[in-house]
Amino acid sequence: MITLFGFGTGFGLPEISPFVTKTEVQLKMAGLDYRKEKAMPPASPKGQLPFIADDGETIADSTFIRAHIEGKYGFDFDAPLSLQARAQAWAFERMIEHHVYWALVGARWVDDANFNKGPAHFFDGAPDHMRDKMREDAQFRVAENYLLSGLGRHAPDEDVDLAIRSLFALSVQLGDKAYLMGDTPCGTDATAFGALAGILTPFFESPLRERAEKFENLTAYVDRMMLQYYPEFAWAPLQQAA
């Protein structure tokens, strides 16, 4: 059986990390049995989550895990997309992971109120004399990566403006369809769902969330995906919450 290593539930989500969510949803899409264990990034070969263990083989990074599933188990996440649609799905996935995701990071880690409410608790189990320093160092490192991503170089309102343009693109692509690329889910839906749910969770307050909630088709999409892939999770429908 495949073992998926992730953070686990938190922040009002069935899985804290959008990348772990992506892999977990793709495992569900492929109909593969798996078990899930909690881990921290240093345990991964690439220093990040998720990673999986499968028959003695360890695969890290959600994109390479997807490739492993496709290669070993013969599951095509993008069936029945045309070659052009596959290229478009890949482009949207890159936009989500290299732009939208960093907006989520800014709202969750750089904003002091949200950091103290959420990520700061990752260090609750640290020794008393080290805890505050570990929290400070972690927030600084993430803020530095946010700066390097490009979004962090802009004023807070400007980075949200840029992120909303990407969410607008996703909203237009989704339209009134059930899924991003049509009537059936594809691999990129797992990516989009993980990032959008991370932004829209009611656990955090942010200008990014407030503006993202205005895309009614995206909030309805997250609600549908949550019901489909995490039916056991207590998720208040976003449109009702808004």
Helices and strands, in N-to-C order?
EHEEEHHHHHHHHH
Strand content: 5-15%
Give the count of helical stretches: 10
The CATH architecture designation of the largest domain is Up-down Bundle
SSE-based structural type: alpha+beta
Q: Biggest sheet, open or closed, and with what strands and sense?
A: 4 strands, mixed
* Overall spatial form: globular
Helix content: 55-70%
Radius of gyration: 18 Å
Question: How would you portray this structure in words?
Answer:
- The protein is an alpha+beta fold and 242 residues long.
- The chain folds into 2 domains: 1-77, Glutaredoxin; 80-241, Glutathione S-transferase Yfyf (Class Pi), Chain A, domain 2 (Up-down Bundle), CATH 1.20.1050.
- The chain contains 10 helices and 4 strands, in the order βαβββααααααααα.
- The chain has helices spanning 18-29, 62-73, 83-110, 112-117, 128-149, 156-174, 187-200, 207-212, 216-229, 238-241; strands at 2-6, 34-38, 51-54, 57-60.
- Helix 7 crosses helix 9.
- The termini are far apart.
- Residues 18-114 form the Thioredoxin-like fold domain.
- Keywords: Transferase.
